[in-house]
Amino acid sequence: MDYLPIFADLKHRPVLVVGGGEVAARKISLLLSAGADVYVVAQSLADEVNQLHQKQSIHWLAKVFDVTQLDDIFLVIAATNNSTLNAQVFQAANQRRRLVNVVDDPARCSFIFPSIVDRSPLVVAVSSAGKAPVLARLLREKLEALLPASLGTVAEIAGNWRDRVKQRLSTLSERRRFWERIFNGRFAALVAANRIDDAQAELEFQLSQNQGQTGDVTLVGAGPGDAGLLTLRGLQAIQQADVVLHDSLVTDEILALVRRDAEQICVGKRAGAHSVAQEETNQLLVKLALEGKRVVRLKGGDPFIFGRAVKS
């Protein structure tokens, strides 16, 4: 990754925007939607920016940029048509270890703005690391059509129920399975139909019906190593697993698809390393499943060729 995707809490935090034109206006609008306190340095303000200033939604700090303006700033954005000034802002921000974005200049960005699908509090961000912004925008448009508007309400209700679910279900694994069942079930359909009271009742019912979880074992073939060749069901099993037992031949590309908090155990054979006997692997699979865990045995290639699946 060229950039680490993170979400920053900007509520009541000071952000400096150098520039007052149309490009700056778009950035300012986005910052205000995140609750930032926006300070602007610009010789003049475009109509849209000036209206925000008149409404006291932003602060027109100065007409000329000075490095001391960065002293109490959280983020910095340079959005002028003066490349020399933009470079000066970038250098000054870097020296003070402030995150800075120079619009349309990826080489002078310590953070970048992604394309955003906003279903607040659910937000999806898409970025090409500044290399293909049009491609990122096209992908965002596809996601906009794919993700229903009701997802925000689904997330909001789920957030309100988190403490209650945590009190009823003591383990992380139990809670994760509960929410997977809820989000794939009747609850989401009721929210989409704007039947909020019925959706709340469905949550209460499902929580009261929740029983101790049972474990299972799924055998998944990793194929020749290309993650794109995994079946959809295989990918789902990998991403839902609590524990993944894998061969040494399974590629890092495929192992990267395993959920971050899942346990990964290598049980494959490798020259010069300890070899795990098949019987030992089988016993471990059963043990983990009896503990109520979702277990995936991830084997390189096709596990049904030469009867390898029978052994597992």
TrEMBL record:
What GO biological process, any one, is recorded here? Answer: methylation
Keywords of this entry = Lyase, Methyltransferase, Multifunctional enzyme, NAD, Oxidoreductase, Porphyrin biosynthesis, S-adenosyl-L-methionine, Transferase
Task: List, for all copies, the residue spans of the domain called Tetrapyrrole methylase.
Answer: 217-309
From the UniProt record, list the coiled-coil ranges. Answer: none
Keyword Lyase carried by entry: yes
Q: Does the keyword S-adenosyl-L-methionine apply?
A: yes
Top-level taxon of origin: Bacteria
Q: Which reaction does it catalyse?
A: precorrin-2 + NAD(+) = sirohydrochlorin + NADH + 2 H(+)
Domain annotation Sirohaem synthase dimerisation: ranges: 150-206
What InterPro entries does the record tag this protein with? Answer: 4pyrrol_Mease, 4pyrrol_Methylase_sf, 4pyrrole_Mease_sub1, Met8-like, NAD(P)-bd_dom_sf, Sirohaem_synt_dimer_dom_sf, Sirohaem_synthase_central, Sirohaem_synthase_dimer_dom
The pathway where this protein functions is: Porphyrin-containing compound metabolism; siroheme biosynthesis; sirohydrochlorin from precorrin-2: step 1/1; Cofactor biosynthesis; adenosylcobalamin biosynthesis; precorrin-2 from uroporphyrinogen III: step 1/1; Porphyrin-containing compound metabolism; siroheme biosynthesis; precorrin-2 from uroporphyrinogen III: step 1/1
Q: What PANTHER family does this protein's entry cite?
A: SIROHEME BIOSYNTHESIS PROTEIN MET8
Task: Give the protein name, as stated in the record.
Answer: Siroheme synthase
